[in-house]
Amino acid sequence: MKQLKPQDAQFLYMETENNLSNVTMICVYTPPETPVQAQVEYDPLAAISSQLQKRLPLSTIFTHRIKSVAMNLDYPYWEKDPHFQFENHLSRVNAAAPGDRTALNKAAANFHSRPLDLRRPPWEAQIVTGLDNIDNLAVGSFALLIKLHHAAIDGTAAMQLFLGLHDSNPEPTTSPINVGNVPEQHPYPSRQQLLRKARQNYLQSPVKAANRIISQLKSMRGTKTHTDLVPHVKKPPVPKTRFNQAVSPEKKLVTHSFPLDQIKLLRGLCAGATLNDIILGICSGALNRYLSHHQELPNIPLVAWVPINARRPGDAADDGNNISAMAINLASQISDPIERLQLIVATTQEAKAARTGTAARMVTDLSQELPSVGMAAFTKLLLASGVTGKICNLAVSNVPGPTAPLFLKGAQCREQYGMVPLGDNMGLFFVVMSYNGSLNISITTTEAILPDDTFMVNCLQEEFTLLQQKLNSGK
């Protein structure tokens, strides 16, 4: 029987009616092109239903529900749902006319904004058909939306799940990609057993925390601090922007794509720049354009919350959450794109030096030893304080994906996007996912915060084009 980790449970404790802890994967497909499959009409609902049911053993997420302990005395457990019915987790909708990208994004946002039924395994899937007018995709294209609770999965684990649902060629295989062993099932403990276990965990948490500190301090001997490794970059206060306001329960999705190879070339603009730095630079430049247009650009930089995969080697396929984060100065007040990028690179290098070593892991490890009651109370206190908008203006998450095309029952996945939770006082989240030669940007926000989404997309494209021009001209 598996217990939720503290970081997993935190996404349960922080959930409100306005801010659900949903994570939604959005995959767009074109119908099969092979001669045999093309001879019969392709039914997306039947094909995906068959594929998903075959891949249920991929993860216990699909068949297990979250069982809470009374009064949050201990972290919840995963319990096999004795009443699991696959049909309760799959639905189908037809995209609104004319079946274009706007219609898909609205359908995905509506799906993402609905709460999951936590009496069941915390996931739902929806097929969106009638996507006949999406750019250069074939008539009859469709999308698969998979929504999971963030308590069950983070971005890295979600990508592993995405891989496992697909095949590497048009002909379906009998076994999924990267399927791990399904853990042995044990009877769910009684209420008395849970309370005894809760008491034991509560009493042991201070000892475990102390042991973690001792272990980490020993391993830090002789290591340099981040201030020894790179020049210190002063951290400015976080300005107030339109992105830092209460968010509505109805979320909005905005999407745009770039050629990945062209994005990678932009690393030549600044020594030491990474792909993630280029992404941050494009987002920062777009925000500079957007806020300047509305005469709302602060004279101090916006700050982005950037999640980091904290898994150790070999843990990538593990379910649940294992993330850290860094706050990045986006230098958004600087008009010159190269100067802006240089400051972003310096900031990320400093943040990585502070967080990728042992000192950073200490913070993540210690959070694993908080008792459930303490974590629940701490989370509610943070929400009430509105601290999110005081430490960042927005979030940017980069999740690397597969470099080759993937297929689901013969249908090829052409595009991949994602939606994530927001928070009060933080209503703009860029999710960046690479797939098969494309870099796909998904923006989770609300209508009140970003009413002119087409203009934001134009700002992203214009900043990318400007950086290309700078590269081609030698700056």
Automatic annotation (TrEMBL):
> Ranges for the O-acyltransferase WSD1-like N-terminal domain?
4-278
Record-annotated O-acyltransferase WSD1 C-terminal domain positions: 320-467
Task: Report the InterPro entries cross-referenced here.
Answer: Acyl_transf_WS/DGAT (IPR014292), CAT-like_dom_sf (IPR023213), O-acyltransferase_WSD1-like (IPR045034), O-acyltransferase_WSD1_C (IPR009721), O-acyltransferase_WSD1_N (IPR004255)
Species per Swiss-Prot/TrEMBL record: Zhongshania aliphaticivorans
* MF-aspect GO terms: diacylglycerol O-acyltransferase activity
Q: What class of enzyme is it?
A: transferase
> Which Pfam families does the record match to this protein?
WS_DGAT_C, WS_DGAT_cat
Instruction: Set out the biological process GO terms recorded for this chain's protein.
Output: biological process involved in interaction with host; glycerol metabolic process; response to hypoxia; response to nitric oxide; triglyceride biosynthetic process
Catalysed reactions, as listed in the record = an acyl-CoA + a 1,2-diacyl-sn-glycerol = a triacyl-sn-glycerol + CoA
A GO term from the CC aspect: plasma membrane
Keywords on record: Acyltransferase, Glycerol metabolism, Lipid biosynthesis, Lipid metabolism, Transferase
Q: What is this protein called?
A: diacylglycerol O-acyltransferase
Protein family membership: Belongs to the long-chain O-acyltransferase family.
Pathway(s) of this molecule = Lipid metabolism; Glycerolipid metabolism; triacylglycerol biosynthesis
The EC number(s) attached to this protein equal: 2.3.1.20
